[in-house]
Specification:
Elements (H helix, E strand, L loop, with lengths): L1 H65 L2 E7 L2 E6 L5 E7 L11 E5 L4 E5 L11 E7 L9 E6 L2
Antiparallel strand pairs: 1-2, 2-5, 3-4, 3-6, 6-7
Length: 155
């Protein structure tokens, strides 16, 4: 009987060693899976951060392109102020700085996308005369937003 008990004890010990070895392998696999999951989560967070930054730049760029004023020269002293953006500008004020030679309208309720307004500019010998045109506008029809301003080089 002692021999049988000894054999059973040895078998029990061998099973325990095998179970410990198997558990150790499972622990290593779980640790490896946890490290890989962390790496994957970090990569996903980095991708999400890049995507958020790209989207913020996209939104800011779209806001910048909503209203884009520029001066187009048609020859000599003939120019046109053009809104080449995608949206209408509201409460537009154009300060020609004394460069205009005719009595042009300098305030507009609305200045739609694609709209052009003709001007004739002249420079004088007066060094105090402005060398640029300042355009101020709002993006909101009720003018509740901060006014935006752009300085365009004159003739």
């Amino acid at each position: 009987m002692t021999v049988a008990a000894f054999v059973l004890s040895c078998l029990g010990f061998a099973v325990a060693v095998l179970a410990a070895w198997f558990a150790h392998g499972q622990k290593k696999a779980a640790e490896s899976a946890a490290v890989e999951a962390k790496r994957s989560a970090d990569a996903a967070e980095a991708v999400a951060a890049v995507e958020r930054e790209r989207r913020a730049e996209e939104v800011a760029d779209a806001a910048r392109r909503r209203v884009v004023f520029g001066l187009l020269q048609f020859g000599g002293r003939q120019f046109a102020l053009r809104n080449s953006g995608t949206d209408t500008a509201y409460g537009v004020h154009v300060d020609t700085g004394g460069l205009g030679i005719q009595d042009e309208v300098v305030d507009f309720e609305e200045f739609e996308a694609g709209h052009e307004e003709a001007y004739i500019f002249a420079r004088t010998m007066n060094p105090e005369q402005a060398s640029h045109i300042v355009v101020t506008w709002h993006l909101q029809p009720d003018r509740s937003d901060e006014p935006r301003t752009v300085r365009l080089l004159g003739p």
